[in-house]
Every structure is written in C-alpha cells, then in structure tokens.
Design goal:
CATH architecture of the largest domain: 3-Layer(bba) Sandwich
Radius of gyration: 22 Å
Number of strands: 22
Shape: globular
Number of domains: 2
Number of helices: 14
Keywords: Monooxygenase, Oxidoreductase
Pfam families: FAD_binding_3
CATH topology of the largest domain: FAD/NAD(P)-binding domain
GO molecular function: FAD binding; monooxygenase activity
InterPro entries: FAD-bd (IPR002938), FAD-dep_Monooxygenase_BioMet (IPR050493), FAD/NAD-bd_sf (IPR036188)
Protein name: 2-polyprenyl-6-methoxyphenol hydroxylase-like FAD-dependent oxidoreductase
Length: 423
C-alpha cells in the first residue's frame, strides 16, 4: 500500500542499511525495484515528483493500458503478489488484426503461443502500480532530485551527496541534503535527472512524429481479445483490462490540433466495416472528456551505470508501445538490479552495477529494436502500400513478427548470474 512518508523519515529508516539507496521515480520500474529491495530487508528512500498517489495512478491522464508478457511473472512471485495480479487483470488469448478498411484480416491465439513461457494478461497502469505496492510502500511525493555530486564514472564507489526538493508543485519548496551509496534513477522517459550523471545523455532516440489519444470503453464479451486496426494515416487499438477496454487512437502529430472528437469521426468515415468493438472504441474517444494524448517517442541511454548511480526502466531505455514489451522489460530490469544488489557490499557496488548493465542491457535493446522495427511498418509506410501491408500480414505469422521477443522468453533473465559473491 502506498503511503506518503516525509523524506527525513524515510532517510532515517535507511540509516542502518548496509547500502543507503535512493530511488528517484515511483513508476513501474521504481516501485518494482524499491519493493524488491524492501523484501531483502533494506529501506530504500523512494521519491516521486507527482503531487500525490491519486495523480500518479490516474488512468485518465497519467496512465494507460498494458498487455504484460510472461517475463513479469517472476517479479510478482518474488513480491508474493501473483494472485493479486491475476485478480486485477484479465487473460489475453486472441489477437485480431484489421485492415485499413476495418475488415478482420486474421485472428491469432497469441496467448496460446506464449503459454509455454507463462501468462499474457491485460492490466491498467494504475492497477499494476497498486498490485506492485500491495505491501507497505512509503513514498515521498511532490519531490524531485535537484543535484548530486560524487557520482563519478570510475571503478571506485563512495557516498553520493544529493540534494532533493520537496514541495516542487508549490511555493513552499524545501531543500534537503543527504548522502547515499546508490542513486537509482527511474523517473521515466522524460527523466529530469539522468542528465546529472555521466552517460545520461541520449545514445539514440526515435521520434515517430505520431501520437494518440487514450480513452476507455465499456467491457464487452471478448475479454480475452486484443484488436488492432492499422489504417491509412491512423492506428486504432483496443486492449482489454479488468472491467473495461483501453483504447488508443493514433495519427500523425499534425492531426493533434484537430482534436480527439473530430479525428475519431474522420477515422470512422474511412471504414467500410465497423465491428461493434471498433464502433465502441471510436465512440469512447469521441465522448472522452479531455483524453490523454500520448506522444510516441523513445530513448536509449549511452550508459546505464556509474560507480554509484544507475538508470532503470524508461530512464535507461524508453520504449515505443508497438511491441507491447516496455513495461515488462522495466519490471524484469528491476528484478535483475535488485538481484545484483542483494549481497553486494559498498566495495562491491561498482562491479555489481557493471554486471547488471552487462547482463540486462542487450536484452532491453533487443526488445527495443523490435519495437522500432514494428514502428517503421506501422507509422512510416508509404500511403500507396497501405493495402499491401494488410496482405503481407496475412502471410506473416505473429510468431515470426514477435520472434525476437519470443527469443527473450525462451532464454529468460537469470538473477543468479548477477548476484555478487557473499563476503
């Protein structure tokens, strides 16, 4: 359960830990690693820029729907919340692909394809954060990391002096200074803090020049089916979660000024076939009150770890949503980072962080590359090839399209490989 705890109180609790750890960002990656570290008996200090828990988990403006692949199952098991996860989510089995006119081209048993490796389930971001924080989860809200010193890029580790500010959304900003052995930066794709560490700049990034509106439609009978419609100048996706369906309606950035309602009606006019779900999806976008607009950008950092800092989740490698793998990789990375720290001493910390990056970065970048390749097909296909795209997808299996992702599932991350030897 997320509770708002003052910074000083969290820091006092961490005072007797073998490693004093600051986690910046209480999103999926930050909460995952903080809760895993707490299961180890540590007391990481977790700070979050959002004003309060309600702002952080608001699915209308700070959240969205997720389809989580099986690499997350071990995280829920380690936290002892697998049943909470199952209760808060729905199983996904079928994937229906529609042509640019709305016609159903094919339906695949995606859940059955992935069943060998675990569960494939749909959940809202807000519900996921609630599940991950089922155990006590202290957070200092309305707080940002302002500065840090001593986070060198060498092999040596020493205390890092940090300055944080509480009350960042008000005039009552209060500075706090403290020393930590490790700073985990997990404050998302638009990280305010990764520039404070060596290597925090971008190695590469992709701007699709597309974005889209997120809305919610009522649940229907097909609770186990995802629908995607790859159109001519638009994309429509419908993703079931518990008791509702998450809708994403995307198009080029140049269409954003049109507004969600008018763009939804424009898309509707292009469709010759309108299934009940697609109809409901477009209606949901049209009727949504100030729907959240999600800009489709990604990010890849040139370096994750120094001797006393590490980037995690979207702060290290932010994903496009095209492969449906970003949240899962954030959670897997959190598990691997927690494992690398489980028995690490202060002296072993630089090596532990290097070992984590060496083991996990290739996996993350493999998944990210797949999402970039799918984005090329989804967003940048010449207009005259839109019809041919549908024909091509009828010939290419989902298993082939997701080959690199399935390869990651076949060869899962192994925490034992990054654990430091006990001394």
């Amino acid at each position: 359960m997320i509770t708002w705890v003052p910074f000083e109180q969290q820091f006092d609790s961490a005072g007797s830990d073998d490693l004093r750890i600051l986690v910046v960002g209480a999103g999926i990656a930050g909460i995952s690693v903080a809760q895993l570290l707490r299961r180890q008996g540590r007391h990481p200090v977790l700070i979050e820029r959002s004003r309060d828990p309600e702002t952080m988990t608001d699915d209308d403006h700070a959240g969205y729907m997720l389809a989580l692949m099986p690499m997350v199952d071990s995280v829920f098991d380690d936290l002892g919340v697998r049943e909470d996860y199952r209760e808060a989510s729905v199983p996904i089995d079928r994937y229906a692909l529609h042509s640019h006119t709305g016609k159903t081209l094919r339906s695949d048993r995606l859940g059955a394809l992935l069943a060998e490796y675990g569960e494939y389930r749909g959940i809202s971001r807000g519900e996921l954060i609630t599940v991950l924080s089922s155990a006590p989860c202290p957070v200092t809200f309305d707080t940002s990391l302002v500065a840090l010193s001593g986070a060198g890029d060498g092999a040596e580790s020493g205390p890092t002096r940090v300055q944080v500010a509480t009350g960042v959304h008000s005039r009552a900003r209060v500075p706090h200074e403290a020393e930590f052995d490790l700073v985990i930066i997990a404050d998302g794709l638009g990280s305010h803090t990764r520039q404070l560490v060596p290597g925090g700049g971008s190695e590469s990034s992709v701007d699709t020049a597309w974005g889209g509106w997120v809305a919610w439609a009522p649940a229907d009978a097909d609770t186990d089916q995802v629908d995607e419609l790859w159109g001519d100048g638009f994309f429509l996706g419908a993703y079931p979660v518990k008791d509702r369906i998450g809708i994403f309606l995307g198009g080029p950035d140049s269409r954003e000024p049109l507004g969600a309602r008018r763009f939804a009606e424009e898309v509707r006019s292009k469709l010759a076939t309108l299934t009940p779900r697609i109809d409901a999806a477009l209606t949901a976008v049209s009727e949504a009150d100030d729907p959240y607009f999600w800009a489709l950008r990604d990010f890849r950092s040139s370096q994750w770890a120094t001797g006393s800092t590490v980037l995690l989740g979207d702060a290290a490698a932010g994903f496009l949503p095209t492969a449906g793998i970003g949240a899962g990789m954030s959670m897997e990375s959190a598990r691997m980072l927690a494992a690398s720290l489980e028995t690490a001493s202060r002296r072993q910390l630089p090596g532990a962080l290097r070992g984590f990056e060496t083991a996990q970065r290739p996996r993350v970048e493999q998944a990210q590359t797949t999402s970039r390749q799918l984005a090329e097909v989804m967003f940048h296909l010449p207009r005259f090839l839109v019809g041919l795209r549908g024909m091509l997808f009828c010939l290419v299996s989902v298993k082939t399209a997701l080959g690199p992702i399935i390869d990651l599932l076949k060869h899962p991350a192994r925490p034992d490989e990054v654990r430091s030897p006990e001394v």
